[in-house]
Design a protein that fits this description.
Distance between the termini: 25 Å
Number of domains: 1
Strand order of the largest sheet: 3-2-1-8-7-6
Number of strands: 8
Largest sheet: 6 strands, parallel
CATH topology: TIM Barrel
Protein name: Putative secreted protein
Pfam family, one: Glyco_hydro_cc
Low-confidence stretches: 1-28
Length: 292
């Protein structure tokens, strides 16, 4: 799917590292930055300058915590019209503390982070279900929508390798639990045959849409095998075009601001400076209005 095609559609419907030379663009050919109502970022080390660089194009962000980054804990992100989304990361949480400390303005609470990974929240589906009433209590007392545990394929040292099976076992163990949205993580290769760099991501998301009825939050995604930043940009643009056009996707967040574990995924370079990939994310066509 072409990002240029989506830009034209939205206009009608609405009425890695870079070098300095990479930063030069023809302003006349660059569409205006639109704050995407779905678009967010998964990142936990923002400076004020970093947030100023990304803020004009995103509507939300999270950092795997129930409180914002230290530099933003004064609530300055709200002045930019960006929502902070808190998380209950794993088993070691105190519901009363979360109820007391979650910032004003939050509308949604994210559930456990990759509980099917031993290196992450490390919870069996049954354990996650047993803890969920306390997560619900936080959401209920603060009037928040509640998002499921965020699952991903696990290659080793796992509670469960299969994210679909994990969620199905979670719901079977917790049939009366409140889950308003489904959170997923998708990391795929981005060099399939054909023109659509995001085909594998699209296929993966469709499988969740077939199995679950709730709106989908894609809270982490990236290409894991991009040979260079241009391949990552091509993947990002095709993925965002799909995510913007799919009505089942309510929100999505790129991973990440800066991360050494996957090549060519950084949206940020120096403090407050967008990489070429970051500029592609900020400038990608987006809808400013969403229904929830």
């Amino acid at each position: 799917m072409s990002a240029r095609w989506l830009w034209a559609l939205l206009v009608v419907g609405c009425a890695c590292e870079s070098t300095p030379s990479d930063d030069v663009r023809d302003d006349a050919s660059t569409p205006p930055v639109v704050r995407g109502c779905k678009r967010g970022v998964a990142y936990g080390h923002h400076s004020i300058a970093d947030f100023a660089a990304l803020g004009p194009a995103i509507s939300w962000w999270y950092n795997w915590h129930h409180l914002p980054d230290d530099a933003l804990r004064d609530g300055s992100y709200r002045a930019q019209g960006v929502e902070y989304v808190p998380m209950v990361w794993g088993r070691d949480f105190d519901a009363d503390t979360h109820v007391r400390e979650i910032p004003e303005g939050a509308t949604t609470l994210l559930g456990f982070n990759e509980p099917n990974f031993a290196s992450q929240a490390n919870l069996s589906a049954a354990d996650a279900a047993a803890l969920w009433p306390e997560v619900e209590r936080i959401a209920d007392e603060r009037g928040l929508l509640l998002v499921s545990p965020a699952v991903n394929y696990c290659g080793g040292d796992c509670q469960d390798t299969d994210p679909f099976r994990y969620l199905e076992e979670f719901f079977a163990a917790c049939p009366d639990c409140r889950v308003d949205r489904i959170a997923i993580h998708v990391y795929v290769g981005c060099r399939p045959e054909g023109d659509d760099q995001a085909r594998w991501l699209i296929d993966h998301v469709r499988r969740y849409e077939e199995r679950f009825t709730q709106p989908i939050w894609l809270t982490e995604f990236a290409c894991t095998d991009a040979a260079n930043v241009d391949e990552q940009i091509a993947f990002l643009e095709d993925a965002v075009a799909f995510l913007e056009s799919d009505p089942r996707i309510e929100r999505y967040a790129w991973f990440s601001g800066r991360f050494e574990g996957i090549d060519h995924v950084d949206l940020l370079g120096a403090d407050g400076e967008l990489t070429a990939l970051g500029r592609a994310y900020v400038e990608a066509p987006a809808s400013p209005d969403c229904e929830r």
